[in-house]
Amino acid sequence: EGLLDKDRRDNRSIGAHGADAILGGLPGGGPVTLLTHCNTGTLATAGYGTALGVVRALHQRGALSRVFCTETRPYNQGSRLSALELRHDGVPVTVIADSAAAAAMRLRGVHAVVVGADRVAANGDVANKIGTFQLAVAARHLGIPFYVAAPSSTCDPTLASGDLIPIEERPGTELTQLGGVLLADPEADVWNPAFDVTPHELITGGIITEWGVFAPPE
């Protein structure tokens, strides 16, 4: 129960620090449109969330215009879980295909991308749900700040860089089937990594923890 309370407090701190940083980087201070990936909310934490904690903090301040949730293929944590949570809380949310993320950044007025993390290496490289790396590349190209929200317990100082983070590979049937319905050639070769590593130089907004936001030079 103590860990439960601490996680909720930490998540609320992450949300507040992230909201301050995002609003502080915008002329006029909002309202803002965000894009997020996978699920980082109540269903993934003890409550409130990390990246979705930032979303919730902005919404509670009346400073959120909309959040775009990638569906997060192949397991659809964004469309199944994040969108469900946010609609439950009355947060304006739009589900997009993973392949529409760069277009949404360019055409739908996205001010910042905020994602979670499964592990942060000592140099700031971040492992997160597959698809995070390509979001960071697109955000860098478009000049949109890219933030990672994670508690300090996610940071692993024993790993010098993200190259040392082991990446789980999931069953190929997650891509070739959906609910037992065949979507592709069952004999097709499949590569289905569950995570990817985003190099620290692409985390242009910073890493948000319960201690504050660590900017790229830090």
TrEMBL record:
Top-level taxon of origin: Eukaryota
One record GO biological process: L-methionine salvage from methylthioadenosine
Keyword Cytoplasm: yes
Keywords: Amino-acid biosynthesis, Cytoplasm, Isomerase, Methionine biosynthesis, Nucleus
Compartments where found: Cytoplasm; Nucleus
MF (Gene Ontology): S-methyl-5-thioribose-1-phosphate isomerase activity
GO terms for cellular component: cytoplasm; nucleus
InterPro entries in the cross-refs: IF-2B-related, IF-M1Pi, IF_2B-like_C, Initiation_fac_2B_a/b/d, M1Pi_N, NagB/RpiA_transferase-like
Keyword field contains Cytoplasm: yes
Family under the similarity heading: Belongs to the eIF-2B alpha/beta/delta subunits family.
The protein's name in its UniProt record: MTNA isomerase
Phylogenetic classification of the source organism: Eukaryota, Metazoa, Chordata, Craniata, Vertebrata
